[in-house]
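$ run holo --ligand "iron/sulfur cluster" --emit tokens
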Amino acid sequence: MAKTLFEKVWDAHVVAQDDGAPAVLYIDAHLVHEVTSPQAFAELRARGLPVRRPDKTFATMDHAIPTRNVDIALWPADAATQVRTLRENCEDFGITLWDINGPIQGIVHVVGPEMGVTQPGMTIVCGDSHTSTHGAFGALAFGIGTSEVEHVLATQCLLQMKPKTMAITVDGELGKGVTAKDIILAIIAKNGAGGGAGYVFEYRGSAIRRLSMANRMTICNMSIEGGARAGMIAPDETTFEFVKGRQYAPKGEAWDRAVAYWKTLVTDEDAVFDRELFLDANQLQPMVTYGTNPGQGVPVTGRIPLPEELEDPAERRSLLAAMEYMGLKPGQAMEGQPVDIVFIGSCTNGRIEDLRAAAGIVQGKRVADNIQAIVVPGSKAVKAQAEAEGLNRIFSEAGFEWRGAGCSMCLAMNDDKAGAGKYVASTSNRNFQGRQGPGARSLLMSPIMAAAAAVNGRVVDVREML
Amino acid sequence: MNPFTTLTATAVPLRMENVDTDQIIPAKYLTAVTKEGMGKGLFSWIRYNPDGTPKPDFVTNKPEYQGAEILIAGRNFGSGSSREHAVWALTDFGFRCVITPGFADIFYNNSLKNGLLPVTLPEDTVNMLLDLVEEEPETLIYVDLKSQTVTLPDGQQHSFGIDPFRKLCLLEGVDDLGYILSKSDEINSFEARPAY
Ligand code: SF4
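-- output --
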């Protein structure tokens, strides 16, 4: 029977399936971080259970850690406690930990692929919704809650209902200054922030095939913002090239067998999706969000909709509530909107390619007056690479702060918070109320758009700078 | 896990769509290493003033909604982060059931694992319920998981869907772990096979 990519990966991981029950799904890689794991380890201890496969479990610290200094003695007590708890848990249960004090560390979804843990055809989970990022490799990767973290620790399995499938085909060629971030923001604007609930997305089409792994990760990362738990892209030469030679990647003869298998991980021609969505890459423009859910986005040359232009009363209510929080007006143009803070980083856009692109815009320029601009590399490896290429100097000379790796202002768990009422041009994935600090107002955009906002002090169409 | 069988309770109307997990519980409450006491962080950015005093016009602060165990809200409830803290905050606050036109997937799953019943009803019905409890906050709503129905005082009944396996787990208060552990033989033989 013809199968989709998702179905192939799913079927290869069903351990048991009783009638009327969810599938018992085997998990190939389990990523762990300091915030959503402590309660899971505590339950494991209470039940007297070991971690079944510490060799398939990898931990790092990213959410709560400060990005400014690494001396734990100076940290806020609660972040320090979480980090200490993670260290203890990894030590007691024999789990590999990429510690902030070691050479490898960063946002879990940046580090996993970097280390070669993320591979095509795998099932990958983490107590974090942006686990969808790893779907860029043709893995089935999704976020789980802390109870499920415990289940995977104990059994290396999860009970899962089979989701539905949605094909999202993006054909055509991206114009200058239009990026992967704009593709995914356009998809979410079109399909709605809840439009993918119950589905796994498969991104396909000529525009997707041409993207680098970094860009594919940006797209799959925000599947969750589109309501889907997972997004996948069929692996190809770009994927194999990325994985090859990384620490946990198969080597020698195992590599050849792996690639032969990975090449079968494509949707069969006559396979059927539950839904299909099409997007013309030629029509896309740089996108900006104006509201408090990621579906509230428009092309940078566009304007915020008027309530009367929205048919659905719930959408109208959402728009008005968002306008009140954002201090913006329906019908207002996004171009020219002043910003106060620029944040370049996160698991959406904190990779080396993102920093290179942003540096290309700021090179030889200065951050506009009264703008706080920070760059937070997604991992220590990204940071080191950027420093080797001199990107840190470009940013620093332009007036950006150059930070250590972590989630930082993406979720404002540490002291990287935007103040109340401040507008943040952000390369992260969520514009929820208070996400980047109580009262902070997020405008989501691509790294080059954020860089352009930094040097202009307002939202501009980056294409005019290219 | 606490079982869920039936519930007769008043409800809080939260007339908002896309209530995301950052609104249900902001990140600053995620620094805990235990589950206890999350209720104090529930909706904190919309529930409290910056100085920490409660906002009198926020619905959970109103005297007429004290003691409510059902939350009624708009579509795409629980979107965003995978934080189970959102569910712990709701249950710690005292909610046992959430009724909306639709939930985000991870939130839905997390609820089931904590004895918090997520009920999906058509949007029109949810709007009607919101109107009703806004006008008459003392309305007692009866939720019966076994018959999968929500019943109003006037006898009106609305059915909701739930996966039969999940329903059984909730009714009996059993979690997934025991079930998965019962498949140890299958897991062992799965692991013995080469991946490719
Ligand atoms: S960077 Fe942001 S979205 Fe990504 S894992 Fe960290 S907090 Fe979550």
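-- notes --
The longest strand of chain A covers residues 164-171.
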